[in-house]
Amino acid sequence: MGTLLLLDADTLAGWRRPTPSLAQLHHAVLHLERTRPDDRVAVIADPSMKFSLTGEEQTRFDADIVAGVLVCTPAGAVDGTHGFIGAVARQAAEQGWEVLAVSDRAVADVPLARLQRDDYGRWSIESSGTVDAARAKAASSAQRPVRRRRSGR
To answer: Mind listing the domains of the chain with CATH numbers?
Structure first.
């Protein structure tokens, strides 16, 4: 069938920025589609990303959903956005697609691509291989415990 490139919208919008930018996401997607014309591109976003954007970009985020430019992870998705990306990848692989993901976090059994931007602002990716499922699960569950301050002392 071909290659399905799954893009984590949060990773592209926030790449090397203090706050996410929908314009940066659009720019990256445009370059990736042009440099990989034989691949199918799907952009998956955590719905909460909308509230990290400026007011104008929040409206554009909604328009992107309506236009089918991006898909938001459904409420209740097992393991959140990265679990949803994994589920989409498995379903695509069952249909004969070769799957490659761009994300800042490991997705079990899905080959990840390294994101790059050159000095001229052009985006590209380089495949970095499949992540072992056990390693991916361990990485996703290895979060630091939240420390709470005791009040009144």
So the answer is: 2-135 (3.40.50.11980)
Provide the edge-to-edge strand list for the sheet that holds 97-102. Answer: 71-72, 40-45, 2-8, 97-102, 111-117, 123-130
pLDDT one digit per residue (tens) for the chain, 153 residues: 789 999 999 999 999 999 999 999 999 999 999 999 999 999 999 999 999 999 899 999 999 999 999 999 999 899 899 999 999 999 999 999 999 999 989 888 889 988 888 888 889 888 765 554 444 445 445 544 445 555 554
The two three-digit tokens of residue 27, written as one number: 């720019």
Instruction: State the chain's maximal CA–CA distance in angstroms.
Output: 63
- The pTM is what? 0.80
Q: Measure the CA–CA gap between 61 and 57, rounded to whole angstroms.
A: 6
